[in-house]
DNA sequence: GTTGAGCGTT
């Protein structure tokens, strides 16, 4: 019962998902459970972790049974120092069933046949309460961006933009800002989730011209060095150093980013 | 061993 997220979503009928950000990478669901459970009934706590390393991503999802409790936890736990870090608690907007989520509340798609369900209006809280909290922090880095998008588009369009933006940040976001974006951001792909598959496929097609990134500096770029063994061309070869321009393809120079400019065809 | 904007799994 202590392991949340291990057995997947237990039961989400009318639970309010809270997003906990800014948590340390060492914080686990077990650590947040007692913290959030103190302010209300926590149905489930889930902390997304990396598929490869398995490390926490730095944020967790806490599902409350009632909104009032969730709201309370947001106001109480939001900005709380956890593990030496100030966590940010806010209602989850997006998610697996973002379309079914309303202000953090997850409604079940089923039970739709009967029209007796009616719409349960919630003339209780409003975004104003939340906004006030956000204003207090005033440390939001790119929170304003969201508001802008909200005003710009609405409905499904928003989802599209959201997805795009998310993906972009996923790749752009490097381990550390200080190091900027390294040319060898391959490792950074770790956060790319299953996008790797897509990438791999593209690479497979480009197998026609492999050994482009790593032409094995150890071995000579010229496979036909039969005469170089016992001949004078050895010295000459050393001078040229580029007997096969096609191997390195210095034409584009920094083409390391796009090894296959014709990837459009393989798509 | 590291990192720090953000939105999730069996």
TrEMBL record:
Query: Where in or outside the cell?
Result: Nucleus
- GO CC aspect terms: nucleus
The record's keywords, sorted A to Z, are: mRNA processing, mRNA splicing, Nucleus, Phosphoprotein, RNA-binding
Ranges of biased composition (kind: Polar residues): 257-267
Which BP terms from GO are recorded?
mRNA processing; RNA splicing
Biased region (Basic and acidic residues) positions are: 144-168, 184-199
Q: Which PROSITE patterns match?
A: RRM
SUPFAM superfamilies assigned: RNA-binding domain, RBD (SSF54928)
Chain spans, region Disordered: 102-267
Q: What InterPro entries would the database entry show?
A: Nucleotide-bd_a/b_plait_sf, RBD_domain_sf, RNA-bind/splicing_reg, RRM_dom, RRM_euk-type
Q: Name one GO molecular function term.
A: RNA binding
What's the chief localization of this chain?
nucleus
Would you say which domain of life the source belongs to?
Answer: Eukaryota
The residue ranges of the RRM domain are 16-94
| Biased composition annotated in UniProt, kind: Basic residues | 114-123, 133-143, 169-178
Residue ranges, compositional bias (Low complexity): 203-230
| Protein name per Swiss-Prot or TrEMBL | Serine arginine-rich splicing factor SC35-like
């Amino acid at each position: 019962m202590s392991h949340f997220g291990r057995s997947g979503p237990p039961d989400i009928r009318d639970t309010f998902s809270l997003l906990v950000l800014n948590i340390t990478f060492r914080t686990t669901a077990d650590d947040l459970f007692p913290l959030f459970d103190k302010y209300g009934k926590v149905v489930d706590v889930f902390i997304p972790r990396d598929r490869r390393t398995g490390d926490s991503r730095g944020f967790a999802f806490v599902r409350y049974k009632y909104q009032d409790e969730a709201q309370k936890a947001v106001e109480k736990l939001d900005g709380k120092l956890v593990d030496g870090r100030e966590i940010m608690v806010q209602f989850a907007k997006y998610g697996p069933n973002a379309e079914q989520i309303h202000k953090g509340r997850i409604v079940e798609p089923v039970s739709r046949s009967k029209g007796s369900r009616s719409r349960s209006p919630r003339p209780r809280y409003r975004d104003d309460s939340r906004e006030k909290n956000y204003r207090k922090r005033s440390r939001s880095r790119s929170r304003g961006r969201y508001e802008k998008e909200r005003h710009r588009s609405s409905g499904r369009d928003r989802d599209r933009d959201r997805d795009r933006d998310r993906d972009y940040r996923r790749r752009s976001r490097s381990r550390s800002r200080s190091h900027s974006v390294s040319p060898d951001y391959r490792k950074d792909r770790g956060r790319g989730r299953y996008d790797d598959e897509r990438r791999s496929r593209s690479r497979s097609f480009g197998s026609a011209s492999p050994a482009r990134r790593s032409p094995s500096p150890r071995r000579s770029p010229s496979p036909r060095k039969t005469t170089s063994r016992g001949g004078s061309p050895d010295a000459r070869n050393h001078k040229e150093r580029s007997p096969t321009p096609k191997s390195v393809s210095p034409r584009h120079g920094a083409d390391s980013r796009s090894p296959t400019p014709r990837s459009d065809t393989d798509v």
